[in-house]
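Appendix B, record 7
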Amino acid sequence: MPAKERPLDPVDIRILEILQTNARTTASDIAATVGMSVPAVCERLRRLESTDVIEQYTAVLNGKKLGKGIMALMMVTLEVPSPANYEMFRELVLAEQDILECYAVTGKYDYKIKIVTSSTASLEGLVLRVKAVSGGAKTNTCIVMSTVKSSSPVVLT
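Structure tokens (predicted):
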């Protein structure tokens, strides 16, 4: 049974702000910052995790340093919209390692995909696989030239 949800109080908000800045901040450091005991902070963290306010802790990697220097955004419209075709498309997205994010969106396109890959050749292969899924998809792909803003924290106040 899911933990009972309660509204976030100012201490919860401060804890979340600290973790968005650095998810490796220790419970001890958080406790010192918010003026609580370590066990009290640990209990709050457990509650925030069990209610899915905190979904996961992660590291942000530099793709360029890891040989994945090309980022692209792809908009996708399925040629024949049907439950089966949507499912085939979603299975492809889940199987592709270079697809980092995929969103079902409103408007002209069905999906928006964020891709990080090693070369234009690997990007081209991915585009062709997306186009082939379920008998065809229309795509519009843009290579990212530079990043102006990324991974902004959620403003809580």
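Remarks on this record: Strands lie at 70-78, 99-104, 111-117, 137-143. The first helix runs from residue 10 to 21.
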